UniProtKB/TrEMBL annotation:
The lineage of its organism: Eukaryota, Metazoa, Chordata, Craniata, Vertebrata. Keywords: Cell membrane, G-protein coupled receptor, Glycoprotein, Lipoprotein, Membrane, Palmitate, Phosphoprotein, Receptor, Transducer, Transmembrane, Transmembrane helix. Its main location: membrane. This is G protein-coupled receptor 6. GO terms for molecular function: G protein-coupled receptor activity. It comes from Columba livia. Pfam families: 7tm_1.
């Protein structure tokens, strides 16, 4: 779980750095070559961020669906392989503009995200829609598992206690917030990339991309800060002290 959170944090950090570099070389220091590099860096970073979110979703699903075998070496290998594949694909997509899939010499092929071509942006948007549908399906399955577990506990105890009801409701609500935040952040930009016209003012592109950057700002709160182990580590890191009497409970990926 912490490897996946670290991957997400790294991708979001690189995305923020890429935005700064892209702005500098787009409006302050004009250079086509460097502009291609910064755009490719942005594509790779944001793709890695979205892929890490998908990996976290898969990890949460596996922690519930295969609870008995989750803490095995096979799961660790699966997660590491998934992460390596996600970063590998992200790197390849980021290299496409640098390797020639750009519209610097063919302005008719430009998309709303210059210098990316229409086909490149369409590929990225289609990939996002696919990831969003996969995450939606997995979170629906997670909700089913959580509700089924609550029902089984109720049958064993002959009634559903208030604490179990509150925990189940809280878990489902949290999943809805996670998926809703992700969709609200990325859907406007993905849809605009498909239906937008290259002749539209660039401010429209930045306006739809802005919520996606907010997603990278919100991710640490949703996926990291709510974890008690990370809270303890941050307390030690920034305060240089830790009260041993404070109890922290280690959480599994299924604790959403």
């Amino acid at each position: 779980m912490f490897v996946l959170v670290g991957s997400l944090a790294t991708a979001d950090l690189l995305a923020g750095l890429g935005l700064i570099l892209n702005f500098v070389f787009q409006y302050v220091i004009h250079s086509e070559t460097v502009s291609l590099l910064t755009v490719g860096f942005l594509v790779a970073s944001f793709t890695a961020s979205v892929s890490s979110l998908l990996a976290i979703t898969v990890d949460r699903y596996l922690s519930l669906y295969n609870a008995l075998t989750y803490y095995s070496e096979r799961t660790v290998l699966c997660i590491h392989t998934m992460l390596a594949g996600a970063w590998g694909v992200s790197l390849c997509l980021g290299l496409l503009p640098v390797l020639g899939w750009n519209c610097l010499h063919d302005h008719a092929a430009c998309s709303v995200v210059r210098p990316l071509t229409k086909s490149n942006v369409t590929l990225l948007s289609a990939s996002f829609f696919l990831i969003f549908l996969i995450m939606l399906h997995l979170y629906i399955e997670i909700c089913k598992i959580v509700c089924r577990h609550a029902h089984q506990i109720a049958l064993q105890q002959h009634f559903l206690t208030a604490s179990h009801y509150v925990a189940t409701k809280k878990g489902v609500s949290t999943l809805a917030i996670i998926l809703g935040t992700f969709g609200a952040s990325w859907l406007p930009f993905a849809i605009y990339c498909v239906v937008g016209d290259p002749d539209y003012p660039s401010v429209y592109t930045y306006a739809t991309l802005l919520p996606a950057t907010y997603n990278s700002m919100i991710n640490p709160i949703i996926y990291a800060y709510r974890n008690h182990e990370i809270q303890r580590s941050m307390w030690v890191l920034f305060c240089g002290c830790f009260q041993a009497k404070v109890s922290f409970r280690s959480r599994s990926p299924s604790d959403v």
